[in-house]
Amino acid sequence: MAVALTVVTPEGQAYDEAVESVVLPGVEGAFGVLSGHEVFMTALQTGEMAIETGTETLYAAVSKGFAEVHEDAVTVMVGSCEFAHEIDLDRAKVAAERAKAQLEEMRGTEEGEAHYQEYQEAYSQAVARVSAAEHK
């Protein structure tokens, strides 16, 4: 039995199809959803989403947000969602290295401590983009 998966970003609907399963980056670890799943709502961290359609597996980098799970439906609300085929892997790797260097450079400085979460989120997003793009 299929699960209705809807992914919504501030720019609009990024995905809306029936799928076999989806794996999402929960704040307490990745979790999978199949048809008949227990109903719950949870926060998501920036990371990789894997969608099993039945004929292929799609990968996407998602930013933090929330997921609402029902027995046969999942609604994912995130700040951004980029599918592997939309990501330039070389650019993503450069961005990840740049974000990592910036994070290291700012560590221990007054400005860096004040903006640590912002830099960490940028790095996490860059790593998620690289991870998703490597599945192309």
Overview of the structural elements:
This protein has 136 residues and is of the alpha+beta class. 30% of the residues lie in helices and 43% in strands. It has helices at residues 89-106, 110-114, 116-133; strands at residues 3-9, 12-19, 21-26, 29-33, 40-44, 47-52, 57-62, 65-70, 73-78, 81-83. Strands 2-1-9-8-5 form a five-stranded mixed sheet, with no helix packed on it. Strands 4-3-6-7-10 form a five-stranded antiparallel sheet, with helices on one face. α1 packs antiparallel against α3.
Question: What topology emerges from the helices and strands here?
Answer:
Layout: E1 3-9, E2 12-19, E3 21-26, E4 29-33, E5 40-44, E6 47-52, E7 57-62, E8 65-70, E9 73-78, E10 81-83, H1 89-106, H2 110-114, H3 116-133
Parallel strand pairs: 1-9
Antiparallel strand pairs: 1-2, 3-4, 3-6, 5-8, 6-7, 7-10, 8-9
Please provide a brief summary of the model.
The protein has 136 residues and is of the alpha+beta class.
Question: What is the number of helices?
Answer: 3
E-strand count: 10
Given this structure, which CATH class of the largest domain is correct?
Answer: Mainly Beta
**Widest sheet, order of strands:** 2-1-9-8-5
Report the CATH superfamily of the largest domain: F0F1 ATP synthase delta/epsilon subunit, N-terminal
Estimate the global geometry from the Cα principal axes: globular
Gyration radius, rounded: 16 Å
Q: Averaged pLDDT, please?
A: 92
Major β-sheet profile: 5 strands, mixed
Number of domains: 2
The CATH architecture of the largest domain can be given as: Sandwich
